[in-house]
Design goal:
Helices cover 57% and strands 12% of the residues. The protein is of the alpha/beta class. A five-stranded parallel β-sheet has the order 2-1-3-4-5, sandwiched between helices. Bound molecules: D-altro-hept-2-ulose 7-phosphate and zinc ion. Zinc ion binds next to helix 7. Pathway: Carbohydrate biosynthesis; D-glycero-D-manno-heptose 7-phosphate biosynthesis; D-glycero-alpha-D-manno-heptose 7-phosphate and D-glycero-beta-D-manno-heptose 7-phosphate from sedoheptulose 7-phosphate: step 1/1. Belongs to the SIS family. GmhA subfamily. Its EC number is 5.3.1.28.
């Protein structure tokens, strides 16, 4: 087995997927940046959720908003719904795993907040329920998906933003999701602080 060749191929595939995605995603990522910045400036917050690697992405995004990305700025309101093991285990145990995010959206979400919903397949039931709860609370949704967008693509409304990575492999989609999250952080900082030199 030629591991070096496999690794080289993965780097190549990741770079190719990112370059194919920028054509489709640059404009909607810019729109998502404006939506999130406007929500934050109006006293709203961003709730983020996802499973597995996407749970890590939700936490990563919240950490960069509450802490910092690349520049010093005011703390920004973001909460990962994938983080509180007591809430997640209680809701999964007492109700259903599908409700672990939606119950938190119903508890914490207000009109004007934004839900960042992350699912590579677009089909995770708990992320779908979170989007339904966000709509019930007059929150807009930014959805990070792949594989054609799945059921989430069908559920989104016209004023939501769908960032669907044009790829089929979960790992490649996740890599573009993380890049997208960093673009959102950079764009929010840029809108709040101005362009850096
Ligand atoms: O990170 C990975 C695979 O790269 C896994 O942990 C992956 O996130 C999990 O299988 C998730 O449950 C997949 O959910 P989704 O992206 O389809 O919503
Ligand atoms: Zn992964």
């Amino acid at each position: 087995m030629d591991l070096i060749a496999r690794i080289s191929q993965q780097f190549q595939d990741s770079a190719d997927t990112k370059l194919a995605a920028v054509e489709l995603l640059a404009a909607p990522i810019a729109a998502a940046t404006e939506l999130m910045t406007s929500a934050l400036l109006n006293g709203g917050k961003i709730l983020a959720c996802g499973n597995g690697g996407s749970a890590g992405d939700a936490q990563h995004f919240a950490a960069e908003l509450v802490g910092r990305f690349e520049r010093e700025r005011q703390e920004l309101a973001a909460i990962s719904l994938s983080t509180d093991t007591s809430i997640i285990t209680a809701v999964a145990n007492d109700y259903a795993f599908e409700q672990i995010f939606s119950k938190q959206v119903r508890a914490l979400g207000h009109p004007g907040d934004v839900l960042l919903a992350i699912s590579t397949s677009g089909n995770s039931a708990n992320v779908i329920e979170a989007i339904r709860a966000a709509h019930d609370h007059d929150m807009k949704v930014v959805a990070l998906t792949g594989k054609g967008g799945g059921k989430i693509g069908e559920l989104l409304r016209d004023d939501d933003i769908h960032l669907c990575v044009p790829a089929k492999r979960t790992a490649r989609i996740q890599e573009v999701h993380l890049l997208t999250i960093h673009c959102l952080c950079d764009g929010i900082d840029c809108m709040l602080l101005g362009e850096d030199e």
